[in-house]
Design goal:
Layout lengths: L1 H14 L1 H5 L10 E5 L4 E6 L5 E6 L6 E7 L2 E8 L8 E6 L8 E6 L15 H4 L1 E3 L21 E12 L2 E9 L9 E7 L6 E7 L6 E10 L10 E9 L3 E8 L7 E2 L13 E8 L4 E8 L4 E7 L6 E6 L9 E12 L2 E11 L8 E9 L4 E3 L10 E2 L7 E5 L9 E5 L14 E2 L6 E7 L5 E7 L7 E13 L4 E4 L8 E8 L6 E6 L5 E7 L4 E5 L15 E5 L6 E9 L2 E6 L4 E6 L8 E6 L3 E11 L2
Parallel strand pairs: 9-28
Antiparallel strand pairs: 1-2, 2-7, 3-6, 3-8, 4-5, 4-7, 9-10, 10-11, 11-12, 13-14, 14-15, 15-16, 17-18, 18-19, 19-20, 21-22, 22-23, 23-24, 23-25, 26-27, 27-29, 29-30, 31-42, 32-41, 33-38, 33-42, 34-35, 34-41, 35-36, 36-37, 38-39, 39-40
The structure holds beta-D-fructofuranose.
The site of beta-D-fructofuranose (FRU) has 12 residues, from strand 9, strand 13, strand 17 and strand 21.
Length: 612
């Protein structure tokens, strides 16, 4: 049938008579022929061989559906906001897989054509073009200098992270055709040091079962899944009409994946996603934790071969924070006081402590089949948060990390406004990598600590303030920050406010914008106010004050800040609390000032520039 259709198109064009009745098109670049077929449909013929087709995007319009026809067969479908009135930016379509074949794009736009103008007048046709390369240098003002982010396009959750042969692999929810959520694909980056990331080709692309939602990878050391020893096995959610779990295997260390022919491997009659699997040394079986999203619980499965999964239990119904869907789980043991406790990570959206999405966790025991959460003194399962900022979500950890490390990374945004932040050709950044550990809080409970991974020290440039100690009072002590080099810096100091009085820490620029942190030694909290930190008019949910417990009873805390072009991450007391917040200052913060309502001792103040 498809062949017939193509034949008809060819025949019509050959007749020539159709061309006469066509509206006049703004000529697209050479090698591309656009044939309008009506108000919302056009064919784009690729007439010359080239590696890329550059597609012009306008963010405010609806997605057009693009059916990619190769030799007349429907090869795949993707969605892109093809420009109607103006071009905001462009995205490339990779044509190399179709070299030597006839490529036609059947474009169906969803624009409201209230005027007489049809699809032929759309702005995209003036600049759609073939190209050899795509410029990814992307010098946007808010593009981070030392955080992981895609070269272009939209990113959300980190996925499938594993460590193998000295490399940290990081996949992520990716839209290669625009800077808003769509076309979910696994993008891929890898790093030898968690700091410098190589951008790799996309790893897993949508198919007949759906787009590729979040999931995990393991190194199958014994080849239990039948793809050979040390194959990398990915389990992800196929998001079609329903959500199902599918498997793909890589025998080239995670660069390319072959999908399992009998996918999906796990189906349920209700919405479930984001499979996270791991090998359980104690039971000799594979375990899987899966978010039963709308039921707000986690399902636990076992398997001998990663393909057949048996449900063993469910955890969480009615427990913890329940004001949103449960997503992106993780489950792993960590040592504390001569024993191992298990940490169950549960990302929640919305329902976070400051609105929107956030990461909660439970501490407990896991026998390979059932997770049993610890209760607090009142006998209840407490709600605990992994980060006390607004921009920390979908956090999961690397499998097979070396030296017994448990290293995690999160998506540094919030579903409330992720699609509206003031960036263009890329959208969203990951948090800095964090090493996780457990500690006992003053209330006797066990908590999860997130410390910046030690590799981050490699980013340090010059030490511009060195080991300063002073008493902070009403008059602020100020220090210059490296604003001329983008404001990128790391700031560390210790506060002793045991004599009382809040300590105010302010990052500011000459535009009067400021991010203000206040340590309250009596309440043992630290707050972060970004209401005046920079641009925030893109969303009413963005201006916010977030607050963290410092878990200290002695009026002391440490402060450890990482400042990138559009984010501030605060860590303290060996990761006992972390706070991650985006900020969009009109110009970099140029000053740090510290004051106190009482008399606080500030010691060991060090400021380092950070290398991009
Ligand atoms: C979390 C999430 C996941 C899902 C993915 C889709 O942010 O909603 O549950 O797999 O994003 O992109």
């Amino acid at each position: 049938m498809k062949k017939n259709r193509l034949d008809i198109i060819l025949a019509l064009t050959a007749m020539g008579s159709v061309a006469l009745s066509l509206p006049v098109m703004a000529a697209p670049a050479e090698g591309v022929k656009v044939e309008p077929l009506g108000s919302n449909n056009a064919l784009v013929r690729i007439m010359e061989e080239a590696p890329l087709l550059i597609l012009p995007v306008q963010e405010s319009v609806d997605d057009a559906r693009v059916n990619v026809l190769v030799d007349g067969n429907l090869e795949r479908i993707f969605y892109v906001r093809l420009a109607k009135n103006k071009v905001d930016y462009t995205v490339p379509l990779d044509l190399t897989p179709y070299k030597g074949h006839e490529v036609v794009l059947d474009v169906v736009s969803n624009h409201d054509r209230t005027s007489s103008r049809g699809i032929e007048g759309d702005a995209c046709w003036k600049s759609i073009q073939l190209a050899d390369t795509f410029d990814t240098s992307n010098r946007e003002k808010y593009r981070p200098a030392f955080h992981h982010t895609p070269l272009y396009g939209w990113m959300n959750d980190p996925n499938g992270m594993f460590y193998k042969d000295g490399r940290w692999h990081l996949y992520y929810q990716y839209n290669p055709y625009g800077s808003k959520w769509q076309n979910m694909t696994w993008g891929h980056s890898s790093s030898s040091d968690l700091v410098h990331w190589n951008h790799e080709p996309v790893a897993i692309t949508p198919d007949g079962l759906g787009t590729i939602f979040s999931g995990s990878c393991v190194v199958d050391h014994d080849g239990t899944a039948g793809f050979g020893k040390d194959a990398v096995i990915a389990l992800y959610t196929s998001a079609g009409t329903s959500q199902m779990q599918s498997l793909a295997a890589s025998t080239d260390n995670g660069t390319t994946f072959q999908k399992y022919v009998s996918n999906p491997v796990l189906t349920l009659p209700s919405e479930a996603r984001d499979p996270n699997m791991f090998f359980n040394e104690a039971t000799g079986e594979w375990n899987l934790i899966l978010a039963h999203a709308l039921e707000k619980e986690m399902l636990l499965f076992t398997s001998p071969d990663l393909k057949t999964w048996t449900l063993s239990s469910a955890f969480g119904k009615g427990e913890g924070a329940q004001d949103g869907v449960w997503e992106c789980p993780d489950l792993f043991p960590l040592p504390i006081e001569e024993e191992n406790k298990w940490v169950l990570i549960c990302n929640l959206n919305p329902g976070g402590p400051f609105g929107g999405s956030a990461t909660q966790y439970f501490i407990g025991d896991f026998d390979g089949h059932t997770f049993t959460a610890d209760t607090d003194a009142s006998g209840k399962i407490p709600t605990k948060w992994m980060d006390f900022g607004k921009d920390h979500y979908a956090t999961v950890s690397w499998s097979d990390a070396p030296d017994g490390r448990r290293t995690a990374i999160g998506w540094m945004s919030n579903w409330q406004y992720a699609a509206d932040v003031p960036t263009e050709q890329f959208r969203s950044v990951n948090t800095l990598p964090r090493d996780l550990s457990l500690f006992r809080g003053p209330d006797g409970e066990i908590y999860l600590a997130s410390s910046p991974s030690p590799e981050l020290k490699a980013l340090r440039g010059d030490r511009i303030v060195s080991n300063r100690s002073f008493t902070a009072g009403k008059k602020a002590a100020s220090f210059r920050l490296p604003a001329s080099s983008g404001g990128l810096c790391e700031i560390l100091f210790d506060i002793d406010a045991s004599k009382g009085g809040n300590v105010n820490i302010e990052l500011s620029n000459s535009k009067g914008e400021k991010a203000v942190m206040v340590f309250d030694p009596e309440a043992a909290t630290i707050s972060f106010d970004r209401t005046q930190a920079g641009i925030s008019d893109f969303s009413p949910e963005f201006p916010a004050v977030t607050i963290a417990p410092t878990f200290s009873e002695d009026g002391k805390t440490s402060v450890h800040l990482f400042i990138d072009r559009s984010s501030i991450e605060l860590f303290a007391r060996d990761g006992r609390y972390a706070m991650t917040n985006l900020v969009f200052p009109a110009e970099p913060y140029s000053s740090l000032s510290i004051s106190s309502d009482g008399k606080a001792k500030i010691s060991s103040l060090n400021i380092y520039t950070l290398k991009p």
